[in-house]
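Researcher: Structure prediction, please.
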Amino acid sequence: MNNDGFLFVSYEDSLKYLGPQDAMDICEEVYRMHARGSVVFSTPPAFKMDVAEFNNYWHVKGCVLKEIPVSGIRMYSYFDDGDRTTVGDLDSTRYVVLSDPRTGLPLGMIDEHWSYGLRSTAAAVVGCKWLGPEAPKRLGLIGVGTMCRTALMCLLTLYDFEEIRCTSRRAETREAFAAEWEEKLGIPVVPVATAEEAAAGAEIVVGGTTAPEVTCQFEWLEPGVTFISLARLELDPAGWGRMDKVVIDSFEFNYKLPWFREIVDSGVLPRERIHAEMTEVVTGEKAGRKQPGESILIHTTGLVSQDVAIAHFIYERARSGGAGVPLPLAHVSGL
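Model: Predicted structure follows.
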């Protein structure tokens, strides 16, 4: 990995250089890196600078991927006052800074507004290769924002659906989403008023909202469903314990979340009832779906290792494609 200067890669360039299949492949490979023990997280793995009076959330995470090799720091900040959040919006702060761990030389800064949304869903959807139904016909989307949009894009790399049902808090957003995707896919995409209607009859259900409350109840799900929960409590806590298999990306990082810790510590879903971490399923250490009738929950909170790997992928593509904005390096300036 040579260094030709520090490269800033914009949101627009990231859109050109990263697609759903790329994100799926990278997330899968990073799970394998974890299995090989070649990922080193920062110490501490994350720190925050949240200021309540500003409704500001500022987080920093980092890791080294020894196999590439690359070091990366992910930093993001957003506004959330309980009524409005910018967590998935373009007016939040989201960047990954990369360097070469062998030399300490800086490589680039990647805008991650696009890659964040795509990674967040690719990391979970890739699990459907082992945990999903064989040939699902109906998909239910609870939410129509960035998470469910990118989840749909990733799922379309694996499946051909015959019908999609989607819901959101506001009729205009779900109706616009349905019209857009029905035109793109040529299949019925039906906007419905409730999460229960979206989940009815669906072999795969995605929960991807910014709602602080639970959005889906276990009783609404079909036997044999694969429920994809994206980075928050989308399924009712009791439902976690009623699933045949629960697969998560990382017990360590999920356990830092108060609501997840409550599910485990209360005995609703004790540690031994969690079937596997995704790394174990991807590598074959733990079984995937064994029976069509198994109800399976896939939940991911997000691994910075995947963010850094995807940012490096975008960086390399932009550099080889002559894209991005080169910035001067201090040691090259001659001062």
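Model: Residues 19 and 264 are 35 Å apart (CA to CA).
Researcher: Thanks, that helps.
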